[in-house]
Amino acid sequence: MTTLTGTGALTKLAFRRDRVMLVIWIYVLTAFVAFTVYGFKGLYPTTAERIQFAATVGHNPALLSLYGPMFGNTLGSLTAWRDAALGGVGTGLMSIFIVIRHTRADEETGRLELVGSAVVGRHAALVTALLVSCGANIMIGVLMAAAVIALGLPAAGSIAMAAGFAGCGLAFTGVAAITAQVAQTARSARGIATGVLGVAFLLRAVGDSASASGLRWLSWLSPMGWDELNRAFGSIRWWVLVLPLATAVVLATTGALLAVHRDYDAGVLPQRPGPAAGRAWLRSPLALAWRLQRSSTIAWVTGALIYGLVIGSSAKGIDGLLRSSQVRQIVVRLGGQAGISNAYLAAILSFTGLIAAGYAVSAILRLRSEETDGLADPILATGASRTAWGLSQQAIAAAGTVVILVATGLGAGLGYGYRSGGGGAEVARLAGAGLAQAPAALVIGGIAGALFGLAPKASVAGSWSALGVAVLMLLVGATLQLPHWVLDVSPFQHLPKLPGGPVSVAPLVWLSLIALALGVVGLAGLRRRDIA
Amino acid sequence: MVDAIDVAGLRKAYGKVVALDGLDLNVATGEVHGFLGPNGAGKTTTIRILLGLLRANGGSARLLGGDPWSEATALHRRLAYVPGDVNLWPNFTGGEVIDLLGRLRGGLDAQRRASLIERFELDPTVKARAYSKGNRQKVALIAALASDVELLLLDEPTAGLDPLMEAAFRGCIEDERGRGRTVLLSSHILSEVEALCDRVTIIRRGRAVESGTLSDLRHLTRTSISAELARPPEGLDRLPGVHDLDIEGDRVRCKVDTDKLDGLLRALSASGVRSLTSQPPTLEELFLRHYAGDGPASQRQPANHGSASQGPANHGPANGGPANDGPAAPDRDGVPA
Lengths: 532, 337
Description:
The structure holds 2 protein chains of 2 kinds.
Chain A: H1 7-17, H2 19-43, H3 47-58, H4 61-67, H5 75-102, H6 104-109, H7 111-116, H8 124-150, H9 155-182, H10 186-209, H11 223-229, H12 242-260, H13 285-315, H14 318-321, H15 325-333, H16 340-372, H17 376-380, H18 386-420, H19 424-435, H20 438-454, H21 456-477, H22 484-487, H23 505-528
Chain B: E1 5-14, E2 17-27, E3 32-36, H1 43-50, E4 58-63, H2 72-76, E5 79-82, H3 94-104, H4 110-119, H5 133-145, E6 151-155, H6 163-178, E7 182-186, H7 190-196, E8 199-204, E9 207-213, H8 214-219, E10 222-229, E11 242-248, E12 251-257, H9 261-270, E13 273-279, H10 283-292
Parallel strand pairs in B: 3-7, 3-8, 5-6, 6-7
Antiparallel strand pairs in B: 1-2, 1-4, 8-9, 10-12, 10-13, 11-12
Helix pairs in contact in B: 3-5
């Protein structure tokens, strides 16, 4: 196997490069599940309470589409239900980042060329990426199983659940192995793989909320469906674990075959020539910012619209299905408001707010990568001022965030209105509810902007951490029954619960002002500091 | 007329690493000025301060009569810059980059753009990620040269070009000089500097160690002499300014400080000169003498004239810094070409 020569040395190097990142991923994902167990222990201590909870969940399409089906009524069942979909998203994202980082990203920067000229086989880099990703997923599986067993859950179920999450990560390891060959830049390789992850989540969401005779089979097409369909803590179906493994093997092998059939630094698709001259509109920092963010923004908005449509249509009829106070309580705890379908939609939209904040952060951090890639220098050496350069990217990031949120609300309104016969009123109502998420998402984006101006070296880690805190507050904050002042750290905590709740304008206004102030502070910092 | 660039006592430190330690640099309007120095000497830092990308810690810098930090935007419309390490947006074609940079600078001459693309044999429809280093360099050069500006700041602009393109580049700079534009050319390629530059400044460890026209600088160096005499010479080793003396019977080889040439020639002719070759100092020798101090100690020659002697600088510039891939790499000169 001379094509694998050097894999050992490369793998060692990769683990060394990733040691901090891997520890954080493994810790956060393990802790997320452990906290869920701990939180549910406090919330539903008795079997009777859990049976009632399980019964309400089992009949609620909204909760089903958000989290998936529940198998059984033990503490373990609740945990597996609550974390299956999101845990799969976590391991999936981690795997995508790891694989792309050691394949396409290294190829793009030319690092791989340097390494490849040494005694290193053709497949060594890809296999290294696969090994690191598999290693990380296995670590998560082992630690997570150990953690929940230590918290008192049955061993077999714990292992099945943890293996399910790890399996989802392995499947996306395979997906990334392919997108790393197809796309030419690390950015788009990550983008495509994350898009596949989004589709997998939607397939699962639609399948899980469908009736048994309907589209329920869709869940079987999604790695995020598999990690719940193995029925950990129910009557365990071990064979389901074969699905992600087989998928990973098939996809990774395909990736390796594609790698052989392309040139170094090229994608699978042939390089097409572009325009010989810049279009007439490409003449300002704002035009440049749009040109740089265009394709990712369009992809985000499209995804948001589709996501909105799916959740909107699945929200229909929830009101009639169940009027249990407990479901209401669950959904309210997730950030929703009374009136089940409203509550469901409000809960979903608050997730969308976080997702849009993710877009905002990545769009703002484009400034940082432009700076470190030496792409800021040529622009700032022209008549473009620093303010114009920074403000342009901020403007695109802010506008994109707003459009993504409105698109989600719009999609949800269309889907819900169509199914419920509510028509145009629903569209306007939900688009508005989506828009109401924007101030909080923009605050997170503003933090990224301020850090970029004031502490550029800390901007990447700092802004993602800020988003991470907001995500944790929403996911486990209420389950853990954290005190109010802790939850209040997250800007999303202050938003009115829309649709359904009272529209309070004040928090929207002052959150917007905070976001604006953060952006201004960032620009002021940018004007004063050295460009790296 | 105001000098295009007037830098005095410029200082810049990155934490404890001193990149510029009292740099003086003077570029008259209309001249092509060579800016030379070993890797990590502070050339790129100087240029980035002149562009207002970095803020100096001390000293003064004037660019086109203005302040490079506070008047950056206005000054930038009057200059064009080619970075030493040209990175382009991977999805942009070369043509798009040229137009974008030109327009941001305030417009570019379409005819010049077309003729430069032809001259540099660039395919403007190729996406930047597919360009080689040399082609990326060409994109930046064309964008700069096609702009109607007074000053060109070029940071090792020919580092990735093949000899043919380098010749094209020289032609372009000659044209620029003809148009009365000022050029600051940072370079390692001595023949290029010798061919193009009116004056040069050599910097080392953040200070200017020499500055002047090439013939000025030549006076500071030694001429190589080899002679065949009628009889073995006497007393040459006692002459001032004679170095590396090598006498084999009636053949003499040595180097002599250019200002002491006269004395040596008199002494030689006293012994009857049969043949004489004299080699003027090359820029290369001048270079090596200044560069050597930064490299391994091997090539250092004893410098016995005051103006170029350099006290032991206690601050190593960036070239000895840790090779981390963090964003804080203080000077792109430190990146091996």
